[in-house]
């Protein structure tokens, strides 16, 4: 474990939402180095073509002088290898997934963690591994925990979601069963998605499902690649899903036309939001609505890695455009809708961890409208943001030398 240290925030970067059309300078950047945000910064790639500014876009450089009005300080609490997701238990401790397949039980008071047994065998390759972790809405009664991971099978690999019971001392998962599988399995080890969120009433589980870097399946309702699915807590398709009359896996789908959605969360008004990695540029924050097609790969504010053009989202194209997007890319790793007291001015806003952007971005949410507000340079790839019981913000940094950071308001 690394010793606890406290540092001030590195380089805050205020962003301006451009509200008028106009051609700006050429932008360079790559949302994911061809691998969905998992490639390290500096991955080779030609600059993307210039993209005209539209509402919700920023073309400001992600750098600048230090700002004396940094909003928080960072406490480096512990180190952890390959962290991916984090969720707090009612006793104030937390579960943290590690992409290698380990589930850690972390005690913020001591900075120590221990291994939770009973986890599944995972495909630990490319972007694959142990993924998200969320508690059942009735956790205090059932002690049910939901995990997602990449698994192998006929045709290659794919995302899976399982449900298990966490032992009373949080040392083991018991009775793990797979309740959902991404279909079909496919070659490669990218774009699994597999972030999860329960609806505010606790009745439905939403799971993001990436396109597996196969593009066209995201427009095919006969599979679950490039979709967000809506399930009952046992993994069965929820009643009222928009494509249920088609039968098969179509009955699971809530929305489609997604690339690699790596964040999903409900706001206090009950609106569902998702962050999605674009190709070269064009990362998105989407308001997720039943039955809507979000355009991938037919529409994007980004460009293919080859430099080939993708039509921008446009009125009348039949696709739902993003509520906000980023050019150049930030590579959103997850999504947190903040509801705590410590950063009272941010209540109800979206906080997004950036991988290639090495940043935290704040987007103001007002009803169904999104306005980009700030971006802060963290100097490290941010994989996960999670709200602690006391309203502090916790961050997991990416990679073998990952860190567990606690962010609190500057005095």
From TrEMBL:
<feature type="domain" description="Glucose/Sorbosone dehydrogenase">
    <location>
        <begin position="81"/>
        <end position="406"/>
    </location>
</feature>
<feature type="region of interest" description="Disordered">
    <location>
        <begin position="29"/>
        <end position="71"/>
    </location>
</feature>
<dbReference type="InterPro" id="IPR011042">
    <property type="entry name" value="6-blade_b-propeller_TolB-like"/>
</dbReference>
<dbReference type="InterPro" id="IPR011041">
    <property type="entry name" value="Quinoprot_gluc/sorb_DH_b-prop"/>
</dbReference>
<dbReference type="Pfam" id="PF07995">
    <property type="entry name" value="GSDH"/>
</dbReference>
<feature type="signal peptide">
    <location>
        <begin position="1"/>
        <end position="28"/>
    </location>
</feature>
<keyword id="KW-0732">Signal</keyword>
<protein>
    <submittedName>
        <fullName>Putative soluble aldose sugar dehydrogenase</fullName>
    </submittedName>
</protein>
<feature type="compositionally biased region" description="Low complexity">
    <location>
        <begin position="40"/>
        <end position="56"/>
    </location>
</feature>
<dbReference type="InterPro" id="IPR012938">
    <property type="entry name" value="Glc/Sorbosone_DH"/>
</dbReference>
């Amino acid at each position: 474990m690394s010793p606890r240290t406290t540092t001030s925030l590195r380089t805050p970067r205020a962003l301006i939402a451009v509200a008028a059309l106009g051609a700006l300078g050429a932008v360079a950047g790559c949302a994911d180095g061809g691998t969905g945000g998992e490639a390290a910064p500096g991955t080779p790639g030609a600059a993307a073509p210039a993209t005209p500014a539209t509402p919700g876009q920023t073309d400001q450089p992600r750098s600048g002088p230090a700002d004396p009005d940094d909003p928080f300080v960072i406490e480096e609490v512990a180190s952890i290898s390959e962290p991916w997701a984090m969720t707090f238990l009612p006793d104030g401790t937390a579960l943290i997934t590690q992409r290698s397949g380990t589930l850690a039980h972390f005690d913020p008071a001591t900075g120590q963690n221990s291994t939770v047994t009973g986890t599944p065998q995972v495909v630990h390759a490319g972007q694959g591994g142990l993924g998200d972790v969320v508690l059942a809405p009735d956790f205090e009664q059932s002690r049910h925990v939901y995990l997602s991971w990449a698994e192998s099978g006929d045709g290659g690999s794919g995302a899976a979601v399982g449900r298990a019971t966490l032992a009373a001392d949080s040392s083991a998962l018991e009775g793990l069963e797979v309740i959902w599988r991404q279909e079909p399995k496919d070659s490669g080890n990218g774009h699994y998605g597999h972030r999860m969120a329960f609806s505010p009433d606790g009745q439905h589980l939403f799971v993001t499902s990436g396109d597996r870097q196969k593009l066209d399946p995201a427009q095919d309702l006969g599979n679950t690649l490039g979709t967000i699915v809506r399930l009952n807590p046992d993994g069965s398709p929820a009643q009222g899903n928009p494509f249920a009359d088609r039968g098969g896996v179509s009955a699971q789908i809530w929305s489609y036309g997604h690339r690699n959605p790596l964040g999903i969360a409900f706001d206090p008004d009950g609106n569902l939001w998702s962050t999605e990695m674009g190709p070269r540029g064009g990362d998105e924050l989407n308001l997720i609505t039943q039955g809507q097609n979000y355009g991938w790969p037919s529409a994007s504010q980004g460009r293919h890695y080859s430099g080939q053009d993708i039509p921008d989202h446009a009125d009348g194209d039949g696709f739902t455009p993003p509520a906000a997007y980023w050019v150049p890319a930030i590579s959103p790793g997850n999504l947190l809708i903040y509801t705590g007291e410590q950063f009272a001015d941010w209540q109800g806003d979206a906080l997004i961890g950036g991988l290639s952007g090495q940043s935290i971005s704040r987007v103001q949410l007002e009803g169904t409208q999104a306005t980009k507000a700030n971006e802060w340079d963290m100097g490290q790839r941010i994989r996960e943001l999670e709200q602690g019981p006391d309203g502090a913000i916790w961050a997991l940094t990416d990679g073998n030398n990952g860190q567990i950071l606690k962010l609190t308001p500057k005095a």
